[in-house]
């Protein structure tokens, strides 16, 4: 695992983390910082993150907890993701500040680095930003030298914002008929202006039909409790991981989690349950008892 410098003072005083992340997950942000490679990027594979950070030292932390951390870090704006090379990559905004990553010259020593965060504009030669790692020498050691100013990334950010807004509008439009099934034809849903990161998380993690099925469950819960809120989609996004578990209970893959798969098989034998014959053991047909069983392993 990479070695990274953690700015403890910045973490301790981060308003974004305090306001946007549950207290029980705030310390995990520091742990996640160690995932970043020398250019600040890491592969955002939640199962791999669980295996690297929690499976050995912190086995009480389950995949459902990692999903919630990921969702909350995104929503708080302390983590951004994008697609490249067929994978999802992550970057912690602010990592480019002086002293947190290696210098540009030192960066040349690294081979096979993951892609640079698109928000850090690179020059036409393909080199990392000229200002990346600036400030790693003591003040005054470069007399008279001006520190390069980070280039503006507004164009990249604006384009991303527009793409996410289109996705958000499309999702809200498809949620309206579901909402009206419970609250009548006149019921409306308004566009939540603060959940664009949630849209990115949802569209890259879940299938649309599953998301709509999850929203249907959420709409029913709101109706049963008498809550008619035109900004329901935004509130649903903050709870999407919980409702997705109701729609598609988590799978236990023998390829990715042999220990849990073996536990599932033992549970099935002890409870006379027929498991699927392929290499994926699904929790859904196990009548709800398997998750408690796995927690005891």
Describe the structure.
With 297 residues, the protein is mainly alpha-helical. The chain has 3 domains: 8-107, Orthogonal Bundle (Arc Repressor Mutant, subunit A), CATH 1.10.10.10; 154-247, no CATH class; 251-295, no CATH class. The chain has 13 helices and 5 strands. It has helices spanning 8-12, 15-20, 23-33, 46-53, 63-76, 104-107, 154-183, 196-205, 208-224, 232-237, 240-247, 258-270, 290-295; strands at 41-43, 80-84, 87-91, 251-253, 280-282. The protein has a 3-stranded antiparallel beta sheet with strand order 1-3-2, covered by helices on one side. Strands 4-5 form a two-stranded antiparallel ribbon. It starts with 7 loop residues before the first helix and ends with a helix. Mean pLDDT is 74; it is low at 121-127, 130-155, 251-259 and 278-288.
The third-level CATH topology of the largest domain is Arc Repressor Mutant, subunit A
Which series of helices and strands comes N to C?
HHHEHHEEHHHHHHEHEH
* Ends apart, CA distance between termini: 26 Å
| Main β sheet profile | 3 strands, antiparallel
- Contiguous uncertain segments of 5+ residues: 121-127, 130-155, 251-259, 278-288
Structural class: mainly alpha
């Amino acid at each position: 695992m990479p070695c990274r410098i953690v700015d403890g003072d910045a973490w301790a005083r981060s308003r974004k983390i305090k306001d946007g992340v549950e207290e029980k997950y705030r310390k995990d942000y520091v742990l996640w910082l160690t995932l970043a490679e020398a250019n600040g990027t890491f592969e955002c594979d939640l199962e791999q993150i669980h295996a690297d950070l929690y499976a050995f030292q912190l086995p009480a932390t389950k995949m459902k907890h990692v999903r919630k951390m990921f969702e909350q870090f995104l929503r708080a704006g302390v983590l951004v993701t994008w697609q490249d090379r067929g994978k999802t990559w992550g970057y912690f905004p602010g990592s480019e500040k002086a002293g947190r990553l290696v210098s540009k010259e030192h960066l040349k020593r690294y081979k096979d680095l993951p892609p640079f965060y698109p928000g850090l504009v690179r020059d036409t030669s393909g080199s990392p930003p000229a200002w990346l790692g600036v400030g790693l020498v003591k003040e005054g050691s470069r007399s008279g030298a001006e520190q390069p100013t980070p280039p503006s990334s507004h164009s990249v950010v604006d384009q991303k914002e527009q793409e996410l807004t289109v996705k958000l509008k499309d999702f809200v439009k498809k949620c309206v008929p579901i909402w009206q099934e419970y609250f009548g034809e006149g019921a409306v849903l308004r566009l939540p202006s603060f959940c664009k990161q949630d849209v990115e998380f949802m569209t890259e993690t879940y299938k649309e039909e599953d998301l709509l099925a999850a929203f249907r469950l959420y709409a029913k819960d709101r109706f049963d409790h008498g809550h008619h809120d035109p900004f329901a989609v935004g509130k649903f996004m903050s709870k999407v991981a919980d409702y997705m578990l109701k729609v598609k209970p988590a799978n236990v893959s023998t390829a990715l989690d042999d220990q849990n798969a073996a536990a599932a098989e033992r549970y099935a034998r002890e409870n006379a349950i027929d498991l699927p014959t392929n290499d994926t053991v699904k929790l859904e047909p196990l009548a709800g008892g398997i998750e408690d069983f796995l927690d005891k392993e």
